[in-house]
UniProtKB/TrEMBL annotation:
The keyword rRNA processing does not apply. This is DUF7705 domain-containing protein. Residues 1-24 form the signal peptide. Residues 26-489 form the DUF7705 domain. The lineage of its organism: Eukaryota, Viridiplantae, Streptophyta, Embryophyta, Tracheophyta.
Length: 494
């Protein structure tokens, strides 16, 4: 009898804890787990300093979207005895081909006169416009779309196009960055296969294209993202492909959950996105299924979570002043061919200290204890005034403002956060659904701040997965699928 009571008590407890777990699990994205039949997805292409620079003729501004609602109709089939009711599906698209083709000089609802002949401003406003077409009313906030981001790492240093740590910079001689000559920072050719639904209820669409505008003498760069889902079942599966070429050896492609308003990581204009609530360290987790089919070669820095935010060196939030705003990124690189540049003999490539899950600080000069192989590279913001020597500052040109990078590698030290603990985890042949304590981990990473300034609130405006093929020596191909993406807010007490 006592035993039965105990069992009952135990089961009740389990039940109750399940209920409370369900209640405390609140998603920060508009489409938790990518399960919504009516998909919202957009595309953006960036040049080296996260702008447009110049549109590619005939392509419009490099912003596009595919957003639709699904309608199911029931038809009676009088001839057949069985299966008399047949479902038929249709998609009501919210973004027309003409919207996606909008380019400089063409006004649209909400466009400002000064944006009409400025390709950077035009793209920023076009994103807001596409967002207005895709927007889903929701609580606590409306949301717009998942974002596919494509970036070309070529920089024409003679163009003087990219600022240096946010400051307008003079042109300089080539050599530091890949560029085949004038026009190397071009925007891609983009084609769009608008989502369609088959009679069996399979929905499929995609974006693809190339950066190579001219010669098709083989070895063209290529990018593709195809999304597919069966009506009413499971998650959308996003299949990505990215290929570098001789002319475009440095390419990036990510699928991002961005802020629905505010600046998202690396972008100094108001954006649209998926994060109905901006997650704050340490109180959030990310769930995502990743299947890397092809790695993209030794230079492919595949990010199983790249998180981006922005705060000033004095700890205050960014306000769009590129001279004092600093983009902050942290990335776990899962390509086992990526070495640790941080080492006892290269302390400048390590953060000044590591913090354990038990809040013990280990200085990088503590060679017996510092986990050097857990860090690929740390670089400090170029506008920081009080850096500890030795240091390495981040590339000053590749963001509109100064940036800071904390790049991690799989290591047992990350086990408490559910992150990859050894080389090969999550890599080709190890497809998994991850539940990453991104909030917990990012609360204990070192980020630079001026001495004595109150610690910045770490609120993340961009969470993404994808690869950066960082100047490949030969044409490389990366291929992966992503699904089930969710950002789960956890309560401070759990
Ligand atoms: C993009 O996909 C379409 C349809 O599958 C194809 O016809 C086109 O050639 C592709 N674009 C490039 C640049 O390969
Ligand atoms: C290690 O670095 C810390 C912080 O910079 C410093 O206080 C300490 O003196 C250093 N220890 C040694 C042995 O150099």
């Amino acid at each position: 009898m006592a035993n039965q009571f105990f069992n009952l008590f135990f089961m009740l407890n389990v039940l109750l804890s399940c209920v409370s777990l369900a209640q405390s699990s609140v998603s920060a994205v508009g489409d938790p787990g990518m399960r919504r039949d009516g998909l919202r997805v957009a595309f953006e292409a960036w040049n080296f300093c996260n702008e447009v620079g110049k549109e590619t003729p005939g392509m419009g501004s490099p912003r596009a979207a595919d957003c639709f609602d699904l309608t199911t109709k029931f038809k009676f089939n009088h001839r057949r005895k069985r299966h008399r009711i047949k479902k038929s599906y249709s998609l009501n698209h919210r973004v027309a081909a003409a919207d996606n083709k909008l380019g400089m000089g063409k006004p649209f609802p909400g466009s400002s006169p000064r944006a009409l002949n400025n390709p950077d401003l035009y793209a920023a406003e076009k994103e807001l416009y596409l967002g207005s077409l895709c927007e889903v009313a929701d609580t606590p906030n409306p949301w717009q779309f998942w974002m596919v981001m494509l970036k070309n790492g070529n920089y024409d240093t003679k163009s003087g196009l990219c600022p240096e740590n946010g400051k307008k910079a003079a042109p300089f001689n080539p050599g530091r960055f890949p560029c085949f000559g004038e026009g190397c920072m071009n925007q891609p050719i983009l084609s769009h296969q608008q989502t369609r639904v088959s009679c069996h209820g399979t929905m499929r669409g995609g974006f693809n294209g190339t950066y190579d505008l001219g010669s098709d003498t083989g070895g063209m760069s290529y990018f593709e993202v195809v999304w597919e889902k069966k009506v009413g079942m499971g998650s959308w599966v996003f299949s990505h492909k990215l290929k570098t070429s001789k002319l475009y050896p440095w390419l990036m492609m990510y699928l991002r959950a961005d802020a629905t308003k505010a600046f998202s990581g690396g972008y100094h204009y108001d954006t649209r996105g998926m994060l109905t609530t901006l997650p704050e360290s340490p109180n959030f987790k990310v769930r995502v299924t990743l299947d890397v089919k092809q790695g993209g070669g030794p230079k492919s820095q595949f990010y199983l979570m790249d998180i981006g935010s922005c705060w000033k060196n004095n700890g205050t939030p960014c306000d769009g002043d590129v001279l004092t705003d600093v983009t902050r990124y942290s990335e776990m690189i899962i390509n086992p061919e990526t070495p640790a540049w941080c080492s006892p003999t290269n302390l400048g490539g390590c953060p000044p200290f590591h913090i354990t899950p038990y809040n013990t600080k280990i200085y990088r000069n503590d060679t017996a204890n510092f986990p050097y192989s857990a860090y690929h590279y740390y670089c400090a913001p170029g506008n920081a005034q009080h850096l500890e020597i030795p240091y390495s500052t981040c590339d000053p040109y590749s963001n509109p403002q100064a940036q800071e990078l904390v790049q991690l590698l799989p290591h047992p030290i990350w086990a408490d956060y559910g992150y990859p603990t050894k080389q090969g985890d999550g890599w080709v042949g190890d497809a998994r659904t991850w539940e990453l304590d991104v909030g917990g981990l990012s609360s204990r990473l070192y980020f630079y701040q001026d001495p004595g300034s109150p610690p910045a609130t770490r609120i993340w405006t961009s969470l993404d997965v994808g690869t950066e093929i960082f100047v490949s020596d030969k044409d490389e191909v990366a291929e992966w699928t992503l699904s089930d993406f969710d950002v789960i807010l956890t309560s401070p007490t759990t």
